Structures are given as C-alpha cells and as structure tokens.
Amino acid sequence: MFRDIVAFQKVYETRSITRAAKELYVTQPTVSIQIKKLEDELGVQLFKRNGNKGLVPTENANRFYRDSQIVLNNWENSLNHLVKKHRSNRIKCVIGASPTAANHVLPPLMVSLERYFDKFDFELITADSEKVLEEIIKREIDFGIVEKPIVTNEVEQVAFASDELVLAGDIDSPEWILGKPGSTQREYTDKYFNEHHIRPTKVIKVNDNNLITNMVARKIGKAIVSKRSIKGTLLPYEQLSNDFCNQLYLINPKTANSSEIQSLISLVKTLLPQLRF
After folding, report:
1. How many CA atoms lie within 13 A of 200 on its CB side?
2. Together in a domain, 138 and 31
3. pLDDT band at 186 (very low <50, low <70, confident <90, very high)
4. 65 neighbors 139 (Cβ within 8 angstroms)
5. Predicted model pTM
6. Which of 82, 125, 197, 233 is most deeply packed, by most CB within 10 A?
C-alpha cells in the first residue's frame, strides 16, 4: 500500500496521472491502477475529472493527503532508525531559507552549528518563503528561515529578528528595479509606490535579490533593499519609515521528522536571537 500512497501523493501534487507517472518512472496505467486500488481499499473517491482542468481532488483526498504525509514520514523514520542502528548514526537535516535569510542568517547559524557536523548531514536550500513553507508541509524541509509571516495550523513560526529596508542606489535615477511578484522586495516596493503616488515609467524586473543589490551597487537604477545587504559598502541610500521593517521568522512543523531534529530545532530557536548578522 505504501507504493499506492506514494502514487496518490504524486497525482495529488501534479493533478495529473501523466505527470505523476513521469516523475515516478512508471507507466500511466500503473498509476491509474494504483489510484483505483487505493480508492477500493479506502472506500472513497479521491479524484474527479474536470475537463481541461484535469483531476480535481475530493475533500476526502485533501484529508487523506495530509494524513498520508504523516504515515509515510513515520515509516521513513522507522527505516532511518534501523539504518542508524546497523550502519550509521548520521541524520539528514534539510534547512530552507528565503534569499535574504540565506545570505545573512544561514552563514552565522551554520558556524554556530559546526559542532553538530559529525551528527547531522546538513542540506541548505534557497527558495521563496512560500516555497519553503510548502516543502515544510510536504516534509521535504525540516525547518526554514523566511521573511514572511505564515498562516497555517500545520507549522509553527517564531520571529527572531527585524530587517530594515532602505531605498538604495542612484536616488535621482528614473529606473526602478523590481523583484518578482509575490516577493518581499516587490511587496515593499509597491507599498512605497502607493504611499508616494509613484507610477514608474522605467523599470527593470529582476527575480533574484542578490542581482538587485549588485545592480544598484553598480549604479544601475534604485531599489528597495535590505539594509543588511549593503552593509559595509559606500552605496548611497535613503532611510524609510518604520513601516519598512521586515521580520525574519523561523518556521517548522509542529511535529518534527525525528526526536533528533526536534532537539536541533529547539537549539536553533535559542541560537537565532543571539546571532550577529
């Protein structure tokens, strides 16, 4: 049944038997049979077809997806415990971080965690705050450091530092550098435009925060950026109001993948407010 559950999760996530089969390296009929078998076992319908929109999960599918995550994670943890007993004591820990957090928080945090390198195999992943949250819910990331507050019952969040934003670069330049829609940089830039009744006529759209900072450092336009990102440079900037101050958050599942990861998260909660970055 575990293989059937894995197939169900892929279909649920992709909304497509074709894409699920491709990602699982099996045939489409195999996935269809697995879904039908699982529906028969559970006694419920999991998906409905909706024309061009493909497969639509039923409410039962939504519930079972959440529960199946726990089932598979518990199974994987049990296997990991067996492997640890017979082969290795090392534990995999995946940390996700949004761009600003990745650049400024992760390096000092990893220095503080250096004494745990013999126990944990760390994997660091950079992604948007929403993507980090999504992967935590899917149990692909153990904990994350992000720039946006979250609203979900599945994840805990703790604010541990503030991040002041400034208007940096050539203040008199007509060119504005904009981050991608949905990013923290873009949200605060739009907020600045609204407050100052600005309709920019010249914009450069960029989907990477480091590139935004590098461009304004080379005197290409101006942008709303984290003050930390220009610390130690001679780049001119303009202070903004207190409303332009972002929080950094530690987010993690309410129940960790293992007791070791849970202990590590508790340690990180203590370390983060003490870091200098």
Report:
1. 19
2. no
3. very high
4. no
5. 0.62
6. 125
